[in-house]
Each structure stands twice: as C-alpha cells, then as structure tokens.
Design brief:
Number of helices of chain A: 14
CATH superfamily of the largest domain in chain B: MetI-like
Radius of gyration of chain A: 26 Å
CATH topology of the largest domain in chain A: MetI-like fold
Distance between the termini of chain B: 42 Å
CATH class of the largest domain in chain A: Mainly Alpha
Number of domains of chain B: 2
Largest sheet of chain B: none
Helix content of chain B: over 70%
Structural class of chain B: mainly alpha
Helix content of chain A: over 70%
Strand content of chain B: under 5%
CATH topology of the largest domain in chain B: MetI-like fold
Radius of gyration of chain B: 24 Å
Shape of chain A: flat
Order of helices and strands of chain B: HHHHHHHHHHHH
Largest sheet of chain A: none
Order of helices and strands of chain A: HHHHHHHHHHHHHH
Shape of chain B: globular
Number of helices of chain B: 12
Largest interface: A-B, 86 and 85 residues
Number of domains of chain A: 2
Strand content of chain A: under 5%
Distance between the termini of chain A: 58 Å
Oligomer: heterodimer
C-alpha cells in the first residue's frame, strides 16, 4: 500500500515538476503581483492596528476609534457614500444613452465611436483641470452661460456661483468630471452586450407580432442585464476609490480618498491613513456583495417576471 | 447615390424618430468635444480673452496667440519635468514587458490548471484601490530605501501596468493558430525557438498595443508619483507639474500644460483603441 502511495506521489511529483518546468515564464509576473499584494495587505493591517503613540507593537484599535470620532472622517464617509449612490446610476444612465445612440449601424458609426472615447483617453488630471477652469468664479464659461450672457440662452441665476466654495457644489463638480470621463467605459460594456444580441431573435419576435415595448422589455432588457451588472459593479468600486477629482476640485472638503492624503501627507500620520484605507476597502467589498445579491435578484426577476 | 439608398434600407426609421436620433448624436458629440475644444481655446487665448472684466468669455480668443506655449518651452524646469516623465514611462514599459510578455505567452498558449483563478486574481489586484495601496507601498519603499527614487516610481507603475500587459498580450498570443506552432516543432525547433521566431513576431501588434498602453498609464499616472515623490521637485513629472500650477498661474498656462500632457495620450489612444475596446468588451462578457 505504502509503495503504491509512494509511486503515486512520485508520479504526482514528476507531473508537478514537469508542470513547473513548462509554466515557469508565468512565475515572475505572478510572484511580482502576489508579493506586492501581500506587502500591501500586511502593511495596511499592521499600520492601522498599531498605535501611533507608544511602541506600536501591540495590536490596538486606537487609530480606528480616533478616526471614527473625527468629524472630518464621518463627513468624508457620508460624502463618499452619497457620491457613490448618486454617481453609479448616473454613469449607467449616461452609458445606456450613448450606447443606444450608437446601436444602429450608420455611415460614420466607427468615427463617432472613436470621438466618444476621447474623454477616456484624456488624463483624469487634465479633465479635472478643465472642469476647474470652466467652472471658475466669477468669470468661467459656466457662470457666464447660467447668467444668460450667451444669447439666445436665458439667464437662470442672478449672481455668479462660487462652485468650489461649498462642499455640495464642489463635490458636484467632481461628480460631473467623473461621469464625463467614465461614460465611455459604461458605453463600451453595454454596447458589447447589445451587439451580442442575435438580430434574428428580434426579427422573429417582430414577425410573431411583438410590439416595440414587448421586444424591449422581454428581449433586450433581460439580455443586457449581465452587461448592466458589470457596469454597476465596476463603477461603484471606482466611485469609492475616487481621488483625483475631489483632490483638484474639492480639496478642502472631506472625502475618503483625499482624507488618506490629508492624514498621510499633511498630518504625517500613516496609522490613521491606513485605517481610512482599510475602511474604504471594507466599504468596497460590502457594496460589491450587496450589489451582487441585488443584481442576482434583478436578473431572476427580469428573466421570469 | 446607390450608397445612400443602401444606407436608407439598412436603417428604416420614421423621420420624426430619425430627427430625435440625429439631435441626440449631435448633443452627445457636443458634450464630448465641447470641453476639449474649450481646453485648446484657453491654451491659445490672450490675457484679455480670459480676464474679460465681466464681459462674457468669447468662444474664440480675441487675439489668438501661442505665446504661452513659447513661455512653457523656454522654461528649463519644464524640460526636466518632460524628461522625468519620459524616463519613468519608458523604463516602466521595459519592466512590464519583461515580466508580462512571458506570462502572457503561457496564459495564451497553455491550458494550465487554475488558469481562470489566475486571471481572476490578476483582475482583482486591479480592483484594489490605488489610494489604499499607496500608503503601504510608500512605507515599504521607505523601509527598503526606494522612497523618492526613480526605481520606486518605476516599480510601482509596473505593478499598475502588469495586469493590462498580461491581458492584452494574452489576447495577442491566443489568436495565433496552433498549426504554426506544431509545424515549427515538426521542423525541429525547440520551445524557445518556436516562441522567439514564430510566436513573438506574430504577436507584435498586440504587444505593441500593450506597450503603448503601459506608456500612457505611466505618463498620466498621478497617485503613486504624488505620494512617492512628495515634495521632491526635481523628480516631478508632467502630471505633478500641472498640479502645481492649479492655484497660482494664469489659466492659459494651465490649459497649455494640459494640452502638452494630453497630446501623446490622444494620439496613441487612437492607435491602440481597437485593443482597448476589445479588452473592455471581452472582460465584460466572459
């Protein structure tokens, strides 16, 4: 019995050795990625669970309790949650509209699709600067437009708005920049979903007398729900992670991403910064799990109403 | 005329609907291109077209001028910054390709067990927030002495680019027919010869796209370079230079620097677009 085991083990060992010999070119890249990810996780946990005061070796929750009692952190958490809740559907909606416009085949379709990808190609920092300039106070294009200085458009405000002076409008600017920049990604994913629908399916439904409404809700919607799920899941993660737009446009108002920068570079406290980062990751994982469940329910409901 | 008629047959649509659709497309194009146009306009504006003293800002500058670009390219610090951006981006490309291409070759050509798991792991690395992983990486680099060094920045940019190189490169290797590889081995080529003289030349277009993508990623990366060079001016790249301009300088300088940062990105994006689109779309379906 044991010899058999030994034989089996020898064969397995031989197989493994051959396998490793065959796939060794894969290993450096994987080790690089895994190694850094382990470093990131270990350092994050060590930093956030050690005290900034004292010897730092004892596992301690003091960083967490300190930031949780910090009004700035609570506001940042609230603002970022709101940013995610409002921004994710907006990006989905914009992606759906753009994809719908490009769904039909027409002469310049590929050219126009390339144009629609420009926001994605532009560096995020440039987009943020662009929003910064356009929404300038008191004399940016947007203020002049809203004041009615460009006929024939009517004026809707009497005084120019100082966009970056209140947390609400400053985060609104960040949201505008973020949605403008990311819409092409949502558009491409949804477009891929739409294009994978077999046109014969729609023709068949039409010839059997299904109305446009029925075709839309009974065929197109159920079939693009996987694409919509991907958009919602990926976009919500990106919303939580956002740094650059609030950094440029809402620097003084609390936001999770910029708070990490504030704790680390301004107050020189890596423990607090790491604790915020851990909470951000928890928020992302939590949101993803909840959304995954919800989208699963939606999928079942849409396919068998 | 024949073409137009065929087009009309392809897209039968009531005229009222067609008008709505055309309006929608035009509005979308305006939303996308309008801000980009305004950015370029700001960069060639003279001072009087920006500080208008209460009059509306014109949509075409009163006296278009390239003087701001002239100022930018006469600034010695700007050349240092440009050089930094180039060195970091090129070395990032070299490191990522060196690590990524062999991995892409294995994942594209071999049915290894656990392949899906490996791919899933590579994607999830990218979903981890940069702003959260930057703190541990900076602390680690301080520990090993790579903080505020070029190598620190290059290693971190390689970390960001590697998943993309593996995915785009894998696609390039996957599409090569198996027969070519078989024939090479029948003719007595060993594994390395097959890889080097048969597979690699055929994968070059896809790998070039991966390299360009990596270059652009490093070129406009902000978070890691900002944390890793915090306060060290002589290592600043173009993104940090632009960030330094935001509160003090005239807006036409801000816009001109933005244009300089964007031009290579836009130009190259058009080249690699096909691969980018395929990457985003296939990732969503699989």
């Amino acid at each position: 019995m044991s010899t058999l085991n030994n034989q089996v083990m020898a064969v397995t060992f031989e197989k493994c050795r051959n396998g490793v010999l065959k796939v060794w070119p894969l290993l450096p890249a994987i080790l690089y990625l895994v190694g850094f990810q382990i470093i990131v996780l270990v350092y994050l946990l060590l930093l956030s669970f050690s005290s900034p005061h004292g010897n730092g070796a004892v596992p301690s929750l003091s960083s967490y309790s300190l930031i949780l009692s910090d009004r700035q952190f609570r506001e940042a958490l609230f603002n970022t949650t709101l940013f995610t809740i409002v921004g994710t559907p907006l990006e989905l909606l914009a992606g759906l509209v753009f994809a719908a416009l490009l769904y039909r085949s027409f002469m310049l379709r590929n050219v126009i699709r390339s144009l629609f990808l420009i926001p994605l190609a532009l560096p995020a920092l440039v987009t943020a600067m662009l929003i910064y300039v356009l929404f300038d106070y008191p004399g940016g294009h947007v203020n002049h437009f809203l004041l009615g200085n460009y006929p024939p458009f009517p004026g809707v405000i009497a005084e120019p708005i100082c966009w970056r002076a209140s947390p609400f409008t400053a985060l609104l600017l960040s949201l505008i920049g973020k949605v403008w920049r990311d819409t092409p990604i949502s558009m491409l994913i949804i477009l891929a979903g739409l294009n994978s629908i077999d046109p014969e399916l729609l023709d068949a439904a039409k010839s059997m007398g299904a109305s446009l409404r029925q075709r839309f809700f009974r065929i197109i919607v159920p079939l693009i729900i996987p694409s919509i799920s991907v958009v919602v899941l990926l976009r919500s993660v990106e919303m939580w992670k956002e740094f650059i737009f609030p950094f440029v446009l809402a620097g003084r108002y609390p936001f999770l991403g910029t708070l990490i920068d504030f704790y680390y570079n301004e107050t020189g406290n890596p423990h607090h910064a790491a604790a915020v980062a851990v909470i951000m990751v928890i928020c992302i994982v939590g949101t993803t799990l909840v959304l995954y469940k919800l989208l699963d329910l939606l999928k079942r409901y849409a396919v068998h109403p | 005329m024949k073409f137009v008629r065929r087009y009309a047959q392809l897209t039968p649509m009531a005229s009222s609907k067609r008008i709505i659709w055309v309006m929608g497309v035009l509005l979308a194009i305006l939303t996308v291109l309008g801000p980009v146009y305004l950015l370029v306009k700001y960069s060639i504006s003279d001072g009087a077209s920006i500080n208008t003293g209460g009059r509306p800002i014109p949509f075409w500058p009163l006296h278009p001028t390239l003087s701001v670009y002239g100022y930018l390219f006469s600034d010695r610090h700007f050349y240092t910054v440009l050089g930094n951006s180039l060195i970091i981006a090129l070395l990032t490309v070299a490191c990522s390709m060196l690590l990524g291409v062999p991995a892409a070759y294995i994942l594209g050509r071999y049915k290894i067990p656990g392949r899906r798991l490996v791919l899933l792991g590579i994607i999830s690395v990218r979903l981890f927030p940069d702003i959260a992983s930057v703190i541990p990486i900076v602390e680690f680099f301080i520990f090993i002495g790579a903080h505020q060094t070029y190598w620190g920045v290059i290693l971190s940019h390689t970390l960001l680019a590697l998943p993309y190189v593996i995915f785009i490169g894998m696609g390039a290797f996957e599409t090569i027919p198996q027969e070519l590889e078989d024939q090479a081995s029948v003719m007595g080529a060993n594994r390395f010869q097959t890889f080097y003289s048969v597979l690699l030349p055929l994968a070059v277009p896809g790998l070039a796209a991966a390299a360009i993508y990596t270059f652009l990623l490093s070129w406009d990366e902000f978070i890691f370079i900002y944390f890793l060079t915090f306060g060290r001016q002589e290592m600043f790249t173009l993104t940090l230079y632009l960030n330094g301009l935001k509160y003090a300088e005239p807006q036409n300088l801000l816009a001109a620097t933005s244009v300089c940062l964007s031009i290579p990105v836009i130009a190259f994006s058009m080249v690699v677009q096909r691969y980018m689109v395929a990457g985003i779309s296939s990732g969503s379906i699989k």
